[in-house]
Amino acid sequence: MSSPNFQEVTVTLNEMKDSKVSQGKIPRLRLRMTGLVILLMMVTLGACSRLESLFVDEPVAAGIDSPDKDVAEYLQAMLQSAQAMTKSGLVRGRLGMAYDVNGLRDAAIVTYEQAEILDPDDFRWPYFRALLIAETGELEQAIKTLERALAIDPDYAPAWLWRGAWLLEDGLLDKAMIAFQQAFNLEAGSVATFGQAQVLVAQGQHQQAAEILEPLVRTTNHPYIYRTLGETLRALGRTEEARIAMAHGKDALPLRWTDDRRDQRNNHIRGSASYNHAKQLSASGRINEALTILERLQVHHPEEECGSEQEFFLACNLVNSLSIAYDREGLPGLALETVQRGLAINPEFIPFHLTIANLYRQQRDLESALDHLDRAVELNPARGYAHEQRGRILFGMQRFEEARAAFETALRYEPEKRTNLFYLGLAEVELGHWTQAVEHFERVVKLEPDFALGYVFLARSLGEVGRIDDARQAQNEARRHGANPAELRVTELKLRELEAK
Question: What is the CA radius of gyration of the chain?
């Protein structure tokens, strides 16, 4: 905003001097007006951004016609609040967060910008806006927007991690290294260290990167770090070590970090997105938060809809997720009652059979558990997970031939799944098929080279087929990867016995 035009004020004073106002009063008036001009200039220069808030557009309306009632009603309420308090940066920012986490990115970007104008001292609005702009691929603009957030709070480590990641992706390697170093100084820990290693890899400094990554994977067991180490070792010609590291990094997703301020947006998740969020909360042990969301969603998708052909999907999933959450909360009776109601409404919803089977297994009612798993397989024979769970129940019932068949079927639908291979190996052990057991356990440790229990059973199986030296090597690997000392002692005694024979 430009300052007031001083010439315009002077003209006004001259006009007043030519008026009928007495000459004795003009100097005092000129003095007062000149002082007012100076004051206005000072106010304008010092608070221009705040005056801009007078010209912020009306709140953007989006998502209020969503077919998801939970989303539509919430966004409508947030929009009405923003329309009622048009000068509140906090209310406008909350509307932006609601748009953001419910998938309305364009509306959120505009709304965060409005919130920043209304409240330029709140770190969140340029920060959240930068995160969304980065999702569009406009990294240069995202970095510039992030700079405004860091000017407000330069001590928020996750912001420096994002800055480093975007600069790295944009090829600005020296600046990326500085950003990751700043994040490390702010105690961002292993994530910042990994960022520095990524910069070194991008610069072609593979030896220096390996010197960082090799100790890092011992303290931070993340597949993406392993995959980066594997690529680095391969560039150095260390192919065998690279193969092992790449096996750890199979199907790795990019590394993410804790970001408490970004997570504040999650309070505004509604609809299907909030269902997925609730499942994540439940799996991570935050059961009360998960139950609050799931029970709220049931207002919009009641149990009765589970029997409706059009509305069954979310309604049935809510019942099933509530049952799982109650079980995790230590309420198995309520969990069983909930899933039984679901089955009474929709007996063909497969997740109900899988959930109730697990509840019965916990109660040691293996026959009932098996009945429901048989029904799940009948409803969808191509679902590997159902065959795997069925195999585990049969194994627990000591029906090893049937268990083996179930695990073999599971592997047809989920090839090379480590848990299936491991249990298949155990079934072969129980049947005395040691050669087949060796084959399965060798595949297990190839898929997961640090799986200590896999090496334990590989050692036992190798001993049984007379490969004592190989068994000793597998035993050493089990020890190196932290196998239970009791398991190691049992295996050692068995190997000595076999060696004596």
Answer: 33
Across the chain, mean pLDDT equals 88
Q: What is the DSSP string of 343-409?
A: HHH-TT-HHHHHHHHHHHHHTT-HHHHHHHHHHHHHH-TT-HHHHHHHHHHHHHTT-HHHHHHHHHH
3-state secondary structure of 290: helix
pLDDT tens per residue, range 362-403: 999 999 999 999 999 999 999 999 999 999 999 999 999 999
Amino acid identity at 365 = D
Amino acid at 59: P
Burial class (CB in 10 A: 0-12, 13-18, 19+), 210: buried
Residue holding tokens 């079934």? 427
pLDDT given for residue 323 in this prediction: 97
pTM of the model: 0.70
Return d(Cα 473, Cα 458) in angstroms, integer. 10
DSSP label of 249: T
Q: How deeply is 20 buried, as exposed, middle or buried, from its count of CB atoms within 10 A (0-12, 13-18, 19+)?
A: exposed
What is the number of helices (H) and of strands (E) in the chain?
Answer: 27, 0
Residue with tokens 């001292």: 121
DSSP 451: -
Question: Which pLDDT value is given to residue 37?
Answer: 44
Kindly report, residue by residue over 63-87, the tens digit of the pLDDT: 999 988 889 999 999 999 999 999 9
SS3 of 407-421: HHHHHHHCCCCHHHH
**């068949």: which residue's tokens?**
405
